[in-house]
Each structure stands twice: as C-alpha cells, then as structure tokens.
Amino acid sequence: MKKKRAIPHTYVIIFVIILTCALLTWIVPGGAYVDGQFGYVDSQPQSWQIFQALYKGFVRQSGIIAFILMIGGAFWVINSSRAIDVGILSFLKRLKGLERVGWVKKLGVGNIVIVMVMLMFSLFGAVFGMSEETIAFTIILVPLAISMGYDSITGVCMVYLAAHVGFAGAILNPFTIGIAQGIAELPLFSGIEYRIFCWVVVNVVAISFVLWHANKVKKRPQSSVMYEEDAYWRTRNEEQGSEVSYHKPRSSWVSYALTVGALIIFSIYYPHTTITIGNGTTQIPWLIPFLSLTFAVVALWGIRKSVHFYVLTVLGYTILFLIVGVLGYDWYLGEISALFLAMGLISGIAIGDSGNLLSQKFIDGAKDLLSAALVVGLAGGIIVILEDGKVVDTILFKMAQAMDGAGKVASVSVMYLIQTCINLFIASGSAKAALTMPIMAPFSDLIGVSRQAAVMAFQFGDGFTTMFAPTSGVLIGVLGIARIPYGKWFKWIWKFILVLTLLGLLLLIPTVTMQLNGF
C-alpha cells in the first residue's frame, strides 16, 4: 500500500519560504525608490541573517502576536463559564424551530446562516477594512460551524474569507481605496457605482463556493480535508454540550454593578460619537450612552435568568463597542485588545473566579494560542529578509518595466499581475498603496489607462491572494486559532483563489473598454 505523503508542518513551509527569499537576495540586484525614482544600490545578500529575521519578524508582528495572546486568555475565561455553549445550543434550538417554516426549510437554515454571516463580514471588510478583527470572531464561529455539522474551514470562511472578499471588492475602505485614490489624486471613493457592482459579483461567487463546500461536508463529513483535525472541536463541543447548571451567583451582581458604573463614566466622557465611513462622517449624539443604557437593561434580564446569559450579553456588547470604537474612535489592536481583556475580567468576576484562578485561566488561554502566535512571528521574517536584502523595490521596478509598450487591456492586466505578486510579499494594503501607486498612477497616464483603473488593479491585486499569502499575519493567526495547518488551507483554497484572480481580471477589462462613471 502506497504511503500517504504528509503535508509539511506550517513552521517548515514558512522556513523554506524564508530560505528561498534569502536566496533571491543573492541573485536579484539591490534597488530602492527615492522620491519616486528607482536606482540601483549595493545588494545586501542574506545568509546568517535568516535567524535574525525570525527575531525581527516577531518584533514586526508584535501587535498581532500580543492581540492573539490577549484574545486567547479572554476567551478561555468566557469558555470556562460555558456561556458560549449555552448561546450555541440556544441558537441551534431556534434554528430547528425555524425548520418548520416552509420556505426556510426549502432554502436550508444552515445556508441562510452562512449567507447572512458572510454578507455581514464582507460588508465590514468593504466599508471599513475589517481584517485583524476577524481573529477575535474566529474563535466563536469555528465552534458554531462544527455544531451545525460543517467543518473548521467553513467557520473560517464565514468570517475571515468573507471579510477579505469584501476587502478586495472594497466600496469605501479608507485603508486601501482611500490611500490609493489620494496618492493618484482622484476624488475620494469616486467610481463607487462600479465598485458596488464588483463587490456584488465577487460575493456571489465566494458565497456560492462556501455553500457548495459546506453542504458537501454536511452530507459527508469525511470529505473535509480537516476531518481528522476537527476531532478537537467535535470533542470539545460534545464535552461542553452536556447539561448546563443555570445559576445566579452574587458575584455576577458585583460584575454588573462595576460594569454599569464604568459605562456611566464612559458615557459622560463620550456623549457624542462621530462615525466615519469612507469619506463621510456622521455625528450620532448619545450613541455611547444609548448602548450603555441598553446594556444595563439587557444584562439585568440576563443576570436574572442565569450568569450564562449575562456573560453572553457582555460578549455581544463587546462586539458592538468594538464596531463603534473602530468606526468612531479609530481603534486598532491596542484598544481592541484592552476591550477583550476587560470582557474577560468582567466575565471572570461574574462567575466567581478568584484573582488567582482568573490569572491561571488567562495564562491557560494564552498558552493554548501560543502556537498560533509563534507562526505569525515566523511569517513576519519573510518580508524582513526581502527588505533587508534590498530586493523588494528591484522586483517592483522590473515588473513595472514589463508593461512598457503593451496595449491598454494588456497593461492593466500586467498592473494587476504586479500588484498580485507584490501582495505575496507585502501583506499590508496601506503599505502597498504607498509603495506602488506613486509609480502606477503616472504610468497609467503614459499608456492611456485611467488612474481609476490603476487603483482597481491595486485593489483586486491587494485582496485576493492575501487569503493564502504566508506573509499575512492575520491569515496565519486565524488558521492557528482554528487549528488548520497552513498546508491544508493552501491545498483547499488555491483553486478558489485562482478563480477569484481570473474574475478580478475580467472585472478590470470594462475599466479600459467601456465608459464607466468615475473612470
């Protein structure tokens, strides 16, 4: 019997990529852009520096690493309360009740849930560039997907893939479109009509693909490439699906009083909130006070029923405050980490944990996700090697030269190819916009392609391949939390990414062959 070849460990794959990049620094000449002009510089071949790159990768990705550890600690406390188990069981019970409705039964409750959740996260990605935040939601949606009869890949797709499909088909994303159009000297978020069309198209394709996969797994669970690894989640769900003892400890009232008191102070300091979506701003008076008041009412109902429902309320309002913080107060990893840490502390107090027990749970949770955090740091070493070797700008320059003399469709296609290739090395959309648009925008003028088309080539090139790029700290973090080996994820998703990439190319053609509003 032929022995099945094992997929290399994620650590092995990343280290091989680092070695390959180090080899490139010996072959590709050094180069740098200064004030938009490219010039060759002394090359810096990397050898023993690959080991230093691992350290620098950890430093570079320190924000995401710390975020993952904080999330792990906070959710370990939440999980120990069994509140999420209660929430999932209640949700599944309601779903079974909905199956009695004719049209719901015909469409499939699971299908409806997948579509609604994916559309929500895709919209978040398209409007305010949700990316890192998906790490926190992965730890909720993967167990939910397993409970519904799907696999961990379906859970990751519901949140991570959906948000990044939205990111690629962005409508008002300030971190990609906003920066790229600003550099290209275009009116911010102009051409939104065609972008909305593109967002709809890529979402139809993505959701259809995920539904096909999810239903295949539900009919035959063994068909999933993650069937063996998902035993962890199935076992966990079975253990946590046992009878839950509802109770109302006095400590939950202490937690409630402390939380409401903190929200009153927060409301006094922030009575009005200015929400920024794209280039538009809207002031919403009394938003924080309103959320605080509704929390006080809903949490009171929950706490009178059981501490589990109180903790679920804390979790739900944590997500609401996260959205308000990102849109209204420019929150990023630091603020979001603090929010989830507070969530963990509030929940721990509610279930009656002592200081020592709460600390131990937090450590256990961080330890559980330590492997995911380590992979993120290792992946950060890839771009460190390329940057320290002075070859990133040279690769960019050589790719730009390839467009010289090509027709409009060919030129925008090459732009797209360049952006797609660069995305494998530089995961940050903002950094890519700052690096490539000063070159692509004026070049598009020379070849008779609109700058808007150049921005869309950047937008698609920045979005699709991020979903399998090993340099993406967010992807590696999400896979680590979901316990999906990178090799299996790549094997599963590469064909879908190829479809999306070709779809992006087709959607770019009208930008140079048709008269589109804003182009």
Rounded mean pLDDT score:
85
- Hey, roughly how much beta strand do the residues contain? under 5%
Instruction: Note the total helix count.
Output: 24
Report the order of strands and helices: HEEHHHHHHHHHHHEEHHHHHHHHHHHH
Oligomer: single chain
Q: Point out poorly predicted stretches.
A: none
Query: What general form does the structure show?
Result: globular
Distance between the termini: 60 Å
Helix proportion: over 70%
Radius of gyration: 24 Å
Main sheet properties? 2 strands, antiparallel
Question: In terms of topology, how is this protein built?
Answer:
Elements: H1 10-27, E1 31-34, E2 37-40, H2 49-60, H3 62-81, H4 83-98, H5 102-107, H6 109-128, H7 134-147, H8 152-168, H9 174-183, H10 192-219, H11 231-240, H12 250-269, E3 272-277, E4 280-285, H13 287-305, H14 307-329, H15 333-350, H16 355-368, H17 370-388, H18 392-401, H19 408-423, H20 429-447, H21 451-463, H22 473-482, H23 486-508, H24 510-513
Antiparallel strand pairs: 1-2, 3-4
Helix pairs in contact: 1-17, 2-17, 3-15, 3-16, 3-17, 4-14, 6-8, 6-10, 7-8, 7-22, 8-10, 8-21, 8-22, 9-20, 9-21, 10-23, 12-13, 12-15, 13-14, 14-15, 17-22, 18-19, 19-20, 19-21, 20-21, 21-23
Structure notes:
The structure is a single chain. With 519 residues, the chain is mainly alpha-helical. Helix content is 73%, strand content 4%. The protein has 24 helices and 4 strands. The strands form 2 sheets. It has a two-stranded antiparallel ribbon with strand order 1-2. A two-stranded antiparallel sheet has the order 3-4. Strand 1 and strand 2 form a beta hairpin. Helix 8 packs antiparallel against helix 21. The longest helix has 28 residues. The mean pLDDT is 85.
